[in-house]
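[step 3/7] inverse_fold.run input=structure_tokens len=109
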């Protein structure tokens, strides 16, 4: 939960491009935030976390930029890099000895 959501009802400095009035924080208490997080966790379907049917998928190849860094492409002609997400069958990630997908809050600070 973003700090501005759980903070006081002070006016935020953010203005919408459409000329709308400034946004206001929700003024949630820490208990409110805990309740929202618990609710979101309750929405997690374990079949999704383990990619079991019907949430399994074939092998997926995803473009991931070109060989080089943010300043320069190192090869001529430029060679596109890809990431491969391995196929997961109907039995899910456990059948392939893969860990469960991270929950939505795993990356929150």
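[step 3/7] decode complete -> sequence:
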């Amino acid at each position: 939960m973003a700090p501005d959501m759980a903070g006081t009802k002070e006016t935020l400095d953010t203005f919408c491009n459409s000329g709308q009035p400034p946004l206001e924080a929700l003024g949630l208490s820490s208990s409110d935030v805990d309740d929202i997080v618990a609710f979101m966790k309750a929405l997690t379907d374990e079949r999704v976390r383990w990619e079991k049917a019907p949430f399994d998928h074939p092998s997926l190849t995803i473009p991931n930029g070109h060989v080089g860094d943010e300043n320069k492409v190192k090869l001529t002609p430029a060679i596109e890099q890809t990431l491969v997400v391995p196929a997961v069958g109907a039995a899910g990630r456990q059948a392939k000895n893969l860990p469960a997908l991270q929950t939505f809050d795993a990356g929150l600070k």
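[step 4/7] annotate
The two ends are 9 Å apart (CA to CA).
The chain has three helices and two strands.
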